[in-house]
Design a protein that fits this description.
Length: 460
């Protein structure tokens, strides 16, 4: 049995619940633990006391950090970067302003005594942030390297290294479609810094979520407790959709194309016409520029919404292999949930004793939901005043979606190297912080005048 005595953390998730007034509450799950320490016993041998050991600083490298070191070295060898580019790549891994000069590992990947509390919906964007090296997200983003990385440097896929016992997120799929090399660098070196435009976009989504939800704290004691809260979060969101006609930040957990995938739907609403029972998926995109996005950005948005529909329709058809779910995420289906979690379940109208009880309720809820409408909607807002720039309605294309997902999975499963973006989309490199690491950009960057280069800009 895993012992938690020496490494305790504080985490937060959320769950939705309806009250008699029609409001939906978010239960913030907080796990509060203590870190125990024990001083080593002093030696009683005189000969040992007489020896004064030299004061040598010791840095303990965790398996998680070792995995990133191995990945960085593998990248430097595989890509045959120039010595200067390789040096900057390794420096990006080992140096962090939050660490002292004697120890330089990415601060966001180090264990901490008490982690700050974050909403499950924020984890899903980022998480599921926590992506490859940080926590933003959406539901969606730090790896469990201790069980996946061996010191002998056996070649493993990104799926095994960074998403084992986590599953892929829809953000992983859209990020891979946007640029596979950028996704590779993100996994190896950590997420790029968050700029002002990204912060404004996230704040807009949080504000929209708070229009229909409210936060309430709930303490959890195990990973099974946390998963129970995730499932009840969906169940209550689905109930809100059926009763009020709209819900936001709805989490999905499903199995498609042979992999477990998670996602968070920005907004889903019932159609105005009572004759149409199929919900409509809507996603809000905020823009810095007062224009509609380029074709490649619209394509990426279409891919995101089609992934949601694919997951939704698959779950609504009853395709949720619960035994595989418990095995993949190493969960005990018969674990007795904590008293506080069970009390929360009962108040939400879904009494349960074990995690298996909640999973069964999750599957029953899907039996009440129809497939999503074939027409999907992207809505673009101007960040400055939140005015509507335009709406793009498009039809679901199952064949195109499957080809896109399968292409992304070839990269994640290690079946091929990361592809470079085509020449006509090379403009993306102007907004990518990893552009100097890409061999295809070395010549371009050296010839580009400083006035034409602005790495702080971000497409939106």
């Amino acid at each position: 049995m895993h012992q938690f005595a020496h490494h305790m953390t504080r985490d937060q998730l959320t769950i939705k619940r309806g009250d008699p007034n029609g409001h939906i509450f978010f239960f913030i799950i907080t796990e509060i633990c203590s870190k125990m320490s024990e001083s080593p016993a002093e030696s009683t041998h005189d000969d040992i006391k007489s020896v004064t050991p030299p004061d040598i600083p010791i840095e303990i490298v965790s398996d998680e950090e070792m995995a990133l070191i191995d990945a960085a070295l593998a990248t430097a060898t595989r890509c045959s970067l120039s010595s200067s580019a390789a040096s900057s790549a390794i420096s990006a891994i080992f140096c962090s302003p939050s660490r002292s000069s004697s120890t330089c590992f990415p601060s966001q990947l180090l264990p901490r005594n008490a982690r700050s509390i974050h909403s499950i919906t924020l984890l899903a964007k980022r998480r599921l942030l926590p992506g490859g090296g940080g926590e933003t997200a959406d539901i969606e983003d730090s790896g469990h390297f201790a069980e996946t990385q061996k010191r002998n440097r056996v070649a493993k896929s990104f799926l095994e290294l960074f998403r084992k016992k986590r599953g892929l997120s829809v953000t992983d799929i859209t990020g891979t479609e946007w640029c596979e090399k950028q996704m590779e660098f993100t996994l190896r070196f950590g997420r790029p810094r968050v700029n002002k435009a990204m912060k404004v976009g996230r704040a807009r989504h949080v504000k929209r979520e708070e229009e229909v939800t409210k936060n309430v704290k709930v303490r959890v004691q195990s990973v099974e407790d946390r998963w129970a809260i995730k499932f009840i979060n969906f169940i209550n969101g689905a109930n809100q959709l059926l009763s009020e006609g709209l819900t936001r930040e709805l989490p999905l957990y499903g199995f498609i194309e042979g992999v477990w995938m998670v996602g968070v739907i920005d907004e889903i609403q019932m159609p105005v016409k009572e004759t149409d029972r199929n919900p409509i998926i809507v996603d809000i995109k905020t823009r810095v520029l007062e224009t509609l996005p380029a074709a490649s950005q619209r394509r990426n948005g279409r891919l995101q919404l089609m992934c949601y529909k694919y997951m939704w329709d698959n779950l609504a058809a009853g395709n949720f292999p619960s035994r595989q779910f418990f095995d993949f995420f190493s969960l005990n289906p018969y674990y007795i949930l904590s008293d506080e979690v069970r009390e929360t379940m009962a108040k939400s109208g879904c009494p349960a004793k074990t995690l298996d009880d909640i999973v069964r309720s999750y599957m029953i809820t899907w039996n009440m939901l129809p497939p999503v409408h074939n027409q999907l909607l992207l809505r673009y807002e101007f960040q400055k005043d939140q005015s509507l720039l335009g709406e793009v309605e498009f039809a679901y294309d199952h064949d195109w979606l499957k080809s896109q997902i399968q292409g992304c999975l070839e990269f994640w499963k290690g079946e091929r190297e990361a592809s470079y973006i085509p020449d006509e989309e090379r403009w993306k490199c102007k907004f990518c912080q990893f552009a100097p690491l890409s061999p295809t950009n070395v010549k371009t960057e050296s010839s580009r005048s400083p006035s034409k280069s602005n790495s702080d800009n971000t497409p939106s």
